[in-house]
């Protein structure tokens, strides 16, 4: 039953400290340990980082800073802190000037912030209690995809890089317990991420408690930890690899990346002593993965990403890729148009069929990339119950290809094209004399490839 | 690297084994004792590296650890001086006082070090009070302990509050319990009559054992016992 061989795949603490941490030179470690130096080096090569508002090295700088003028969207952190200690995240302004709401819901005022800065300067949060300095930076705008996954802070993606190749990753979600911080040590939730697709796999809370469900604040219910797709996955990996070029002398390290709503991936921190719990939420061993890329000479960022994708991708990765491949459509396609609830279609020829729980009718449609919006024949729209007065969204002035000017009603339509659901607005035109009663405009063709093959 | 260490340790063992009859019944130690050095002090001194070795073995192979390597060693010495029960009571009292004083002092929003100094005031008064009470009660006698065990205990309590502040309460409790466990183990080892005799009779053997164990542990890159439990969840069931 008990098989020690199974444990050989894992990177243990002893081996990390004795073998792998020695691959980081003291210079690289020095840069990585200081959030300020990391930020500087990363900015030089153009890697995105949260905007620096101020840096305090002495007490009088803290005292003289115009705290009251700060908008309610900033983070105070120690330059050499570790494990997320000593970080205050402010979400918004409070009722009075000089008062803010923290991420955990409590209030802070200028006095508290000054006192906290002072404690940082004294070295309360630095390694060995050495004097430290304070960073004041802008809090990033959380990507909407992540907004639902946490109530308290900014989720980030930790990527472990060895020999320039991303070997493992996890999505870290702050919880109430972790006080808005994304560190597992503090009680955050970590979800393993497939390297090929950026889809989550397994989850842990804190340093080892397995979790299978997390709370979705958007849907207001528990959701499974697996199957959450991280947006801009490739860009995240590229950002991680670019850090390598900015900080010399790192061989085995981790990088924490957040997704900004507007600016895309930004690097929060580079960690020269990454933790080992990432192996538990991925249910995979770091050691086995690192052995695979140990001797490879990595030629480029693309090479590194391909290596990571094909060596460390989960079994489901291929299926996902197949699904995501752009679908090819012909210039004439059959679409299935949804019939509004409770409406009896006035069609004699085409039968109503079922698409899932909806009633649909098959309609022949012509692809026209010259048109922006799709259009539907007036008669057909009436027969399908789409032109009922309450369904008309608005009227718009159109100029047809024949030079006619007309105000056309625009109605909401749901249809399926090649099995993909499209919810859109369609204008109603007179297509009485035309062979196809539905015209597919380019607005609804996103993600499709149009084949010019003769039918 | 591993091979060199093994060869070196084997060489050391052989060397001392061949030399040990000469050093056995060590004349040096006998002379030191007759000259007035206390036997207990010699035992403590020679056992110190062995204690530290014990702590490192526990850390790297079992995965049980306290605050670094010296704090558990020092607390072990302190416990063997005060007696385990008395030492634990002393520590419990100091810890209680420092937690309570921190609760009060936190409200004052003072600088970090003045807070520590003020905490020390509470502790000093508290320990003094405890000494007075214990002489009155005549239960566990901690009235005549020296200042050093008290200092070590304060150090441990201080580590506790620091870890609790900087990391978490759970981590602090875990590390403090680890330290106390290791220290109790060490104190038991030090108080064992057999061990003292071995140290006095074969001091070189103690040194050889320490060197060999540390060379071996120092090269160990395998899994720790506690990690087996930790990584069990990371194994995929087929």
UniProtKB/TrEMBL annotation, chain A:
Keywords noted in UniProt: ATP-binding, Nucleotide-binding
Source superkingdom: Bacteria
SUPFAM superfamilies documented for this protein: Acid proteases, Glutathione synthetase ATP-binding domain-like
GO MF annotation: an example: ribosomal S6-glutamic acid ligase activity
GO biological process terms on file: SOS response
Pfam families reported for this sequence: ATPgrasp_ST (PF14397)
ATP-grasp domain span: 39-297
InterPro entries reported in the protein's UniProt record: ATP-grasp, Peptidase_aspartic_dom_sf, RimK-rel_E_lig_ATP-grasp
Entry GO CC: cytoplasm
Designated name of the protein: ATP-grasp domain-containing protein
The organism's taxonomic lineage, starting at the top: Bacteria, Candidatus Shapironibacteriota
TrEMBL record, chain B:
Keyword Zinc: no
Annotated TM spans: 40-57, 87-105, 117-136, 142-160, 172-193, 205-223
Signal peptide: none
Superkingdom in the source lineage: Bacteria
One Pfam entry name: 7TM_transglut
Keyword Transmembrane: yes
Keywords from the UniProt entry: Membrane, Transmembrane, Transmembrane helix
Protein name: 7 transmembrane helices usually fused to an inactive transglutaminase domain-containing protein
Organism per entry: Candidatus Shapirobacteria bacterium CG06_land_8_20_14_3_00_40_12
